[in-house]
Amino acid sequence: MRQADFDGRGSCIRWTETPGEEPARVYVHGLGALSAVYHAHIAARSELAGRRSLFVDLPGHGISDRPRSFGYTLEEHADALAAALDAAGLTGAELVAHSMGGTVAVVLAHRRPDLVSRLVLTEANLDPEPPPTAGSSTIASYGEDALVNGGHARVLETVGPVWAATMRLADPRALHRSATGLWRGSNPPAREILQGLPIDRVYLQGELSGELAGRQALEASGVRVVTVPGAGHNIMFDNPDAFVAAVAGPR
């Protein structure tokens, strides 16, 4: 396990990694999740063997610290992730990022283009104000103190066993601020950033999640959008073969 200060006050973002060749692949989880839980089984596949792989937990999640003074906005998460990559000595990494983590990765590529050479995004949140059915909207619908004082437990009862298994490890206050930051979006918006990035970009959409809004414009900007059959939001669990193929890229 490695760590890096992300707020100038001794709070640390942490990750585990496996050795291998560069460019490294950096796996980033979604809201209320952990990177290794969602991605270690992917990185271990023979098609992806031999590459250095980092499994980073964002602030407030997993093994990383959860300072109460931190804002947990998308930009702050991106800067914390940059601190981890800088400490790891990385440049030009491939980011494999899920849901909120995908949004953070897009913002990072905008703020620190030296750190990112490729994005593989799994149903990343590209627009502010997600629909009421989104998990982040449910969390953000609580007041911060209300989520901390009982709301967190109620949310865990409704999200299903897979998400609850990792969300119960997230700090409730950090979870709420992350969700509200996701609801507000980034400036400029993640969709606008993604369309303008001059790097290889892949966007994975689960077939069961429905059609991706704005797909044609994304593809026109050079984003390769892949609809993954038989998969919902957690494509790495629902169809790992297709997920691995997308991460590996063209042979």
Summarize the structure.
By secondary structure, the protein is an alpha/beta fold.
Give a written overview of the molecule.
This protein is an alpha/beta fold and 251 residues long. It is 41% helix and 20% strand. It has helices spanning 35-43, 74-87, 100-111, 135-140, 144-158, 161-167, 172-184, 190-196, 215-220, 235-238, 240-248; strands spanning 2-5, 12-18, 21-28, 51-57, 93-98, 116-122, 200-206, 224-228. It has an eight-stranded mixed sheet, with helices on both faces. β5, α3 (100-111) and β6 form a beta-alpha-beta unit. α2 (74-87) crosses α3, α5 packs antiparallel against α6 (161-167) and α5 (144-158) packs across α7 (172-184). The chain is globular, with a radius of gyration of 17 Å.
Summarize the SSE layout with pairings.
Elements: E1 2-5, E2 12-18, E3 21-28, H1 35-43, E4 51-57, H2 74-87, E5 93-98, H3 100-111, E6 116-122, H4 135-140, H5 144-158, H6 161-167, H7 172-184, H8 190-196, E7 200-206, H9 215-220, E8 224-228, H10 235-238, H11 240-248
Helix pairs in contact: 2-3, 5-6, 5-7
Q: What brief labels describe this structure?
A:
251 residues; 11 helices; eight-stranded mixed β-sheet; alpha/beta
Low-confidence stretches at least 5 residues in length (pLDDT < 50)? none
Q: What does the average pLDDT come to? A: 97
Helix/strand-derived category reads: alpha/beta
The end-to-end span amounts to 32 Å
Shape: globular
Sheet with most strands: 8 strands, mixed
What proportion of the residues form beta strands (DSSP E)? 15-25%
* Number of separate strands: 8
Instruction: Output the number of helix runs.
Output: 11
N-to-C series of helices and strands: EEEHEHEHEHHHHHEHEHH
Q: How much helicity do the residues have?
A: 40-55%
